[in-house]
Write a structure and sequence with these properties.
The complex is a heterodimer.
Chain A (H helix, E strand, L loop, with lengths): L19 H6 L4 H6 L4 H11 L11 H6 L10 E6 L9 H7 L1 H15 L3 E6 L4 H16 L15 E6 L9 H8 L14 H4 L6 E5 H13 L1 H5 L2 E2 L2 E2 L1 E8 L5 E6 L5 H8 L9 E5 L8 E2 L3 E5 L5 E5 L7 H6 L8 E6 L4 H15 L5 H21 L4 H12 L7 H32 L12
Parallel strand pairs in A: 1-2, 1-4, 2-3, 7-13
Antiparallel strand pairs in A: 5-6, 7-8, 9-10, 9-13, 11-12
Helix pairs in contact in A: 3-6, 5-6, 6-10, 14-15, 14-17, 15-16, 15-17, 16-17
Chain B lengths: L4 H10 L10 H12 L4 H10 L4 H8 L13 E6 L2 H5 L2 H12 L5 E2 L5 E6 L11 E3 L2 E3 L4 H12 L4
The chains are: A alpha/beta, B alpha+beta.
Chain lengths: ~450, ~160
């Protein structure tokens, strides 16, 4: 299947470089020139009409987010680009930052003009050392050409961009945690209400936080108009998505398609070259490690939002926001993790639990205490001390975290546990039984692990 | 404690760009750490004073963010991603191979101070697992053979 690239149009194209001259040669900054002659509210209307949903994970319509902006407070308005890309399985923003940074800067400046922000930030994860240098350089290139800074292109509009580096904390991808971090604090997320960034964000001023890919979409919305953009994909699932495929496929990588243009099966087999020879599909985590796992031999039955009934096998699921939500998971950040039949599900969950226990900010008790507890249980199971009742214990802990924390990290940590137990409980119980029988035979209970 | 003139220059350019001084706390931690290798008590006090904050305001972020360090690393700082996509690609085996070849346990610095080996969480390059960073340079698809040659180059100082 042929990709249909919009955001990644130039990425990896022969001869395409990340400097401003190359970008300008390919029609760069034409949309910014157009944007500064438009009325800011008209750009917002185009973004709303486009139906574009946030590409960071939650899938919230960007136009609606912008509508919540408190424009009457008299306080400065800020735009923040969330370039913390840290949901395991996701690696699309990295490509834009490293290979097409001006597309992001142009998208940001168009968006900043639309919301009338005069200062914007790119919060980039600390591990992107090179990406940070590339963005800094790109910003100075744009400034030298009066595309950024004071009185942009003589329009009277001024906006600067500061690149701000994170330092290895996953929670900075949560927008209020990011804002705390940008203010120079620990990244403890804020409670909503009242701290909706659009009203009380950075420095208690109205703030819009958008993902890298979403901000790039804005550039294309200005170019083609909101209505034309909304025709890509299906109603409610507009535009393209960059699916980041990792794990047990022959050709992992990033692939851009219109929303709903292909099924999960087509993505795995036609695009990613299928599994390794002799292997069978066991499970897929479709939207970054916090999304709920799908089991390969499940039947997914139900009704879509528009009332259409569906009855799908895992490979029939269309890759879009609503279909993945309808089967009980989510498209999240677009990180699709494929697991074949060589995968030990207890070890896979132990690996995920280790991640979330490492990343909990520690602010809310259920998360601070519960997530490391889940990590301990799964680590113990892998170390040869599994108990048959562990699956129920894990589920019980997860149930007491989800919905009881300030931010969505509680769900992000609970969903993998709840879904692994719901779909693969038999393997958790089997592990305990197998260890008990090995112990009876006088052998070591634990076997060698590969994922933890 | 003495910072290089270019570090001081970067700091002086950076601080006034922020509407609120405190926002420069994390960037200053990065700059000072890059200069000195880690953040000592003295460094924390210096950053606090520069931003008109209390040392505890800096200490609390230094102890929160995994990339900020209270101790120096070895000459080579090797970070192996162990998160699920890299693990599915063999990251744990890669790390074990590095442990053996470099004679250092993960989470520690070798006795000769040559190398610090650490597990880290997802570096957002999961399509090229396993991912290993050495200093600020990223290496991808580091399987067992690549791990051997990486260890060899670290040992003879050519990486």
């Amino acid at each position: 299947m042929e990709e249909q690239r919009l955001i990644f149009k130039h990425i990896d194209a022969p001869g395409y470089t990340h400097d401003i001259d190359c970008y300008l040669k390919h029609g760069g900054y034409e949309q910014l020139k157009k944007a500064v002659t438009m009325k800011p509210e008209d750009i917002c209307a185009e973004v709303t009409a486009s139906g574009v949903r946030g590409r960071g994970g939650a899938g919230f319509p960007a136009g609606v987010k912008w509508k919540f902006l408190d424009r009457k407070s008299g306080k400065p308005i800020y735009l923040i680009c969330n370039a913390d890309e840290s949901e395991p399985g996701t690696f699309k923003d990295r490509q834009i930052i490293h290979k097409d940074p001006h597309q992001l800067i142009e998208g940001m400046l168009c968006s900043a003009f639309a919301i009338q922000a005069q200062l914007a930030f790119i919060y980039i994860r600390g591990e992107f050392f090179e990406g940070y240098r590339i963005l800094e350089e790109a910003i100075e290139e744009a400034r030298a050409k009066n595309l950024l800074g004071d009185n942009i292109l003589g329009s009277g509009y001024s906006c600067d961009i500061i690149v701000h580096r994170g330092a290895g904390a996953y929670i900075c991808g949560e927008e209020t945690g990011l804002i705390e971090s940008l203010e120079g604090n620990r990244a403890n997320p804020r409670i909503k209400p009242p701290y909706f960034p659009a009203a009380l964000g950075l420095y208690q001023c109205p703030t819009i936080v958008n993902n890298v890919e979403t901000l790039c979409d804005v550039k294309h919305i200005i170019e083609m108009g909101g209505e034309a953009f909304s025709k890509i994909g299906t109603p409610g699932n507009t535009g393209t998505r960059i699916w980041c495929v990792s794990g047990h496929v022959q050709k992992p990588g990033y692939y851009e398609f219109p929303c709903a243009a292909l099924t999960l099966g087509e993505l795995i087999h036609d695009v990613c070259g299928g599994l390794q020879p002799g292997r069978k599909l066991k499970a897929v985590i479709p939207g970054g490690s916090s999304s709920k796992i799908l089991r390969a031999d499940e039947r997914f039955k139900g009704k879509l939002k528009d009332g259409t009934e569906f009855d799908w096998g895992i490979e029939d699921i269309p890759m879009d926001f609503d279909s993945l939500a309808a089967v009980g998971s989510m498209s999240g950040s677009g990180g699709v993790i494929i697991m074949d039949d060589s995968t030990d599900m207890v070890e896979a969950l132990a690996n995920i639990n280790y991640f979330y226990a490492h990343e909990s900010c520690g602010q809310c008790t259920p998360c601070r205490e519960g997530v490391p507890w889940m990590r301990k249980v799964t680590a113990r199971m892998c170390a040869g001390e599994a108990r048959e009742e562990d699956a129920d214990l894990l589920n019980d802990i997860a149930d007491q975290i989800a919905g009881r924390t300030i931010c969505a990290f509680g769900e992000a940590a609970a969903w993998p546990v709840q879904s692994f137990i719901a779909k693969f409980k038999d393997e958790f119980v089997e592990k305990a039984k197998a260890q008990a029988s090995r112990r009876k035979e006088g052998k070591p209970a634990a076997t060698e692990t590969t994922l933890i | 404690m003495e910072l290089k003139p270019e570090t001081l220059e970067k700091i002086d350019r950076l601080v006034p760009r922020y509407p609120v001084k405190r926002s420069a706390a994390l960037p200053l931690c990065h700059l000072v750490q890059e200069d000195l290798g880690y953040l000592s008590d003295e460094a924390i006090e210096w950053i606090a004073e520069r931003l008109e904050l209390e040392p505890i305001n800096i200490a609390e972020i230094v102890t929160f963010y995994p990339m900020l360090r209270r101790e120096p690393t070895g000459e080579y700082h090797v970070r192996v991603c162990r998160t699920l996509p890299c693990a599915l690609g063999g990251a744990y085996q890669t790390c074990r191979r590095l442990e053996e070849a470099l004679n250092v346990k993960v989470g520690h610095t070798s006795e000769d101070g040559k190398v610090t080996l650490e597990f880290v969480e997802c570096h957002a390059d999961c399509g090229k697992a396993p991912v290993v960073m050495v200093g600020e340079t990223e290496y991808t698809e580091v399987g067992l053979e690549a791990a051997d040659s990486m260890a060899e180059k670290i040992k003879n100082g050519t990486l």
